[in-house]
Design goal:
Residues 244-264 are annotated as: Disordered. Keywords: Signal. By secondary structure, the chain is mainly beta. It folds into three domains: 2-142, SH3 type barrels; 145-229, SH3 type barrels (Roll); 235-395, no CATH class. The protein contains four helices and 30 strands. It has helices at residues 2-17, 81-84, 235-239, 255-258; strands spanning 26-27, 43-49, 54-57, 63-65, 77-80, 89-97, 100-107, 109-112, 130-135, 139-142, 145-159, 167-168, 177-182, 192-200, 205-211, 216-221, 227-229, 247-252, 261-262, 273-278, 284-290, 296-302, 305-312, 318-322, 331-334, 343-348, 355-362, 366-373, 378-384, 391-392. A hairpin with an 8-residue loop joins strand 25 (331-334) and strand 26. The radius of gyration is 29 Å and the shape is elongated. Mean pLDDT is 89; it is low at 1-23.
Length: 399
């Protein structure tokens, strides 16, 4: 018995002495004292691979098992091709035995909004990511990203719809743990730049964003619905185009007023903005509001009453144009029948009412209002619906 213990200790020392010779994909050594059975054989070498080296299933008839000791037993099967066919895997341990090579596998995880302080080492990996043990020959190594390129010149972008996609620490599922590291709530009124682009294994493209001041933001899905390629333009100057005899004022909701909370479906922390254009008689001629979802609504006025309402798409193209007098004396709500996007509503008031117009954004997790008074005062409000999970904006890596 003693001679067997000394033999095992000697093998462990030999493996440890060879650690410097292991390639960058593996770090020797893992434990040699792992129980096995006759189908696995005796462990000759045990290493800890680089978990960010990704794998897919190569054999559709494979099975994952609870342990090497139970390997091959039907009662120990933890997963198979049917349950894991779309997953990406990483190996936490590699065992070279007298019968072949075996991996202890976990699935790649996304922490989403909750993962900012989540597991970033395998020691903290969640239990449900543990798939089990499998033959190395049943897996195939893949590259999670292709065509990595750095732009020669920064490419300008600005935010369109802030709710479709978020900012990630890495393109999702390209390393063993990815999470949302930022949101667009406080980035909609400024110029952004893309500096790098990668193509994921599934063909989707991600770009790396930074601010005009050089602050690094992270990776986001390259999509024309969430980001517009080009120079950012102030919406007041773009759509109101004040003339020499006209005066334009801009008012922005305070950060504190937004609540500084983040949700999965909204941009609750996005400050609403209002532009008021007065003519040479100092009467309000036009009002432009950007809502909680960054959608623009423009209202024309004549003698204190609305004459035209224009609601724009997130890409700043005219979407709904209302000139119907009845609607402009009561209210109008713009929304999509088949798309899950926020609705924009404008409430109008009689000339005797101190309120001029209220623009409301109805979302899935909350709502926001901008009320413009006839004297030029503006009141903002953001309201989160009850029982909605929110996250503090301060948890993210930029504000």
């Amino acid at each position: 018995m003693k001679s067997r213990i000394f033999l095992l200790l000697g093998l462990a020392l030999v493996v440890a002495g060879c650690a410097s010779k292991v390639n960058s994909d593996e770090n020797a050594t893992a434990s040699m004292f792992v129980p096995t059975n006759s189908k696995v054989g005796q462990i000759k070498k045990s290493t800890v691979p680089n978990i960010d080296v990704a794998y897919k299933i190569a054999n559709k008839k494979l099975h994952f098992y609870r342990s090497l000791k139970m390997f091959g037993k039907k009662s120990a099967v933890t997963a198979d091709y049917a349950t894991e066919r779309g997953e990406t895997f990483g190996a936490t341990n590699k065992y070279v035995t007298s019968k072949g090579t075996f991996y202890h596998m976990v699935t790649y995880e996304s922490g989403g909004f909750e993962g900012i302080h989540g597991p970033q080492t395998i020691d903290n990996f969640s239990d449900f990511a543990d798939v089990g043990y499998v033959k190395a020959s049943d897996m195939k190594r893949i590259k999670t990203v292709h065509d990595v390129k750095t732009y020669k010149h920064k490419r300008p972008y600005y935010v369109a719809d802030p709710n479709i996609h978020r900012i990630w620490n890495q393109p999702p599922y390209t390393v063993h743990y990815t999470y949302i590291s930022g949101v667009f709530d406080r980035l909609a009124a400024e110029q952004l730049y893309a500096t790098k682009e990668v193509t994921r294994y599934n063909g989707s493209h991600y770009i790396f964003l930074e601010r005009a001041n050089g602050q690094k933001l992270g990776w986001t899905f390259k999509n024309s619905k969430s980001l517009v390629a080009g120079k950012y333009r102030d919406p007041g100057k773009q759509f109101l185009k004040p003339k020499k005899h006209e005066a334009m004022t801009k008012k922005v909701q305070s950060n504190r007023s937004t609540g500084n909370r983040v949700t999965t479906n909204e941009s609750l922390s996005m400050p609403q903005r209002t532009y008021i254009l007065r003519d040479k008689q100092h009467h309000i001629a036009k009002v432009l509001v950007t809502g909680m979802d960054n959608r623009i609504s423009k209202i024309n006025f004549h003698k204190g009453q609305a004459t035209k309402l224009t609601v724009y798409t997130y890409r700043r193209k005219p979407w709904k144009t209302i000139t119907n007098r009845k609607k402009l004396r009561t209210h109008y709500q713009a929304g999509h029948l088949f798309l899950q996007t926020d609705n924009a509503r404008a409430n109008f008031y009689s000339v005797k009412n101190p309120k001029l117009v209220t623009v409301i954004t109805y979302g899935y997790d909350g709502m926001a209002t901008t009320t413009v008074y006839r004297n030029g005062r503006v009141k903002f409000n953001t309201h989160k619906y009850k029982h909605i999970m929110t996250y503090p904006l301060s948890s993210f890596n930029f504000k």
